[in-house]
Amino acid sequence: MSSLRSKVLSCYRSLHRTRLKVFRDDSFALEAGKQRIRTEFLKHKNETDPAKLLNLFKWQRVQRRS
């Protein structure tokens, strides 16, 4: 597996783990968060430009810290 692919998968898993912690008692928010994460990743699934992917990773890190 390429390192870029592993970073993308790691980012995806990290967002889902964060979603589970943040919305642990809210089933509606858990489901909405799951759908939003999936939608955003599917929107960019054909992206191959490393610079654009790094920009998306930065967005993910900012969202996790907020």
Question: How would you describe this structure to a colleague?
Answer:
By secondary structure, the chain is an all-alpha fold. It has helices spanning 3-22, 27-43, 50-65. The protein contains 3 helices and no strands. The model has no long low-confidence stretch (mean pLDDT 84). Interacts with UQCRFS1. This is Complex III assembly factor LYRM7. InterPro entries: Complex1_LYR_dom, Complex1_LYR_LYRM7, MZM1/LYRM7. One of its GO terms (molecular function) is protein folding chaperone.
Mean pLDDT: 84
Distance between the termini: 30 Å
**Annotation field: number of helices:** 3
Going by helix content, strand content and strand pairing, the class is mainly alpha
Largest sheet: none
Low-confidence region ranges: none
Beta strand count: 0
Helicity level: over 70%
The sequence of SSEs as H and E is HHH
Tell me the β content.
under 5%
The whole-angstrom Rg is: 12 Å
* Principal-axis shape: elongated
Defining key terms:
single chain; 66 residues; mainly alpha; 3 helices; elongated; Complex1_LYR_LYRM7; Complex1_LYR_dom; protein folding chaperone; mitochondrion
Task: Tell me the layout of helices and strands.
Elements (H helix, E strand, L loop, with lengths): L2 H20 L4 H17 L6 H16 L1
Short description:
GO terms for molecular function: protein folding chaperone. This protein has 3 helices and no strands.
